[in-house]
Amino acid sequence: MSSNFLYYVFVLIAIIAGVIVVKKVASCLIKSIILLVMVGALLLIYFKFFA
Q1: Total-model pTM
Q2: Residue 43 and residue 17: Cα distance in Å, rounded?
Q3: pLDDT at 18 over 70
Q4: Cα 24 to Cα 27: distance, rounded to the nearest angstrom
């Protein structure tokens, strides 16, 4: 019985660690996408009005 309990504890820890990693990666990806959109908008404004 204790081996089953330890198995569930390890699975729970793995799920929590996975959620934390996914949240960090997702926030980094969201920041990168926002940065790319801002750069694209600046390039569009530059070529539309100043080129």
Answers
A1: 0.57
A2: 39
A3: yes
A4: 5
